[in-house]
Amino acid sequence: MRALLALAAAVAVPLNAADKPAPLTPSEIVAAAPKADWLAIAPADLLVMDLSPDAAGKPRRVMIQTMPAPFSQDWGGNIRRLARAHWWDGLSINRVQDNYVVQWGDADGEDKAKAKPLPPGLTTVPESRYLAPLPHPAPPFLPWRDVYAAHVGFTSTGWPFASDGKVWWPVHCYGAVGVGRNVSPDTGSGAELYAVIGHAPRHLDRNIAVVGRVIEGVEHLSSLPRGTGALGFYATPGERVRIEAIRLGSEVPDLPAYEFLVPRSPSFARYAHARANQKDDFFIQPSGGADICNIPVPVRRKAG
Asked: Domain 43-257 in CATH: superfamily?
């Protein structure tokens, strides 16, 4: 009887701080997000880049999600036209600059005598297209400060953006894909593309078009040998990595299905809060805020 009373008394003692369950980590919140909080990515919105196999003979595939309107739609139209024409097939990755970008396209593009002809019908895009009018009502902004803009947030379609309160624009985060260009007023056609493989180069925002993001296979880009030439360009043709093919996802058979966590879902709100205020067992001091690029939109393969 005394033993039972002692057990009852022990159970009745409130949990102390050490006994409280640890807050969920961002990855745990994402893993627990219900199906209703995820949205499918259409295959037509994917670019599938197959590089030559690595030194061990393993295939290297990079999956790129293209950015929807209102951002970058003119460059996006060019990119789709280039992909449908199979224009990138047989070209190469020509630049790998440490903590910055990987760039691909026609290595002879600056030489008119050697450059690969572009498909007809590409649009010349004005610099004004780096920005888009902010819709009303405006999308929700994050409550944390940003060095490069008055406001930052996420579109309903899952893309990070920045704004001055009047216009908005996409931002350069890790894995972002942008359009290479020459000096202003040139804005690039989309034939030269790059992916960010280092610290988010936000100083490029509003200066170069962001047209997509790598959602799978970024390791095949970030692990490439760094170029030894100026700005990380490969000094010799033998250093370049061959592009076997770039296709629209709708043209590739047996492609996995992908989905992203919707920014306006309850799960995403909990995930963003956790990224800014991590209090799990590992963290000693929560930061109380987060850079927009430190809240990457979760993307995953759909089960089944």
From this structure: Cyclophilin-like (2.40.100.10)
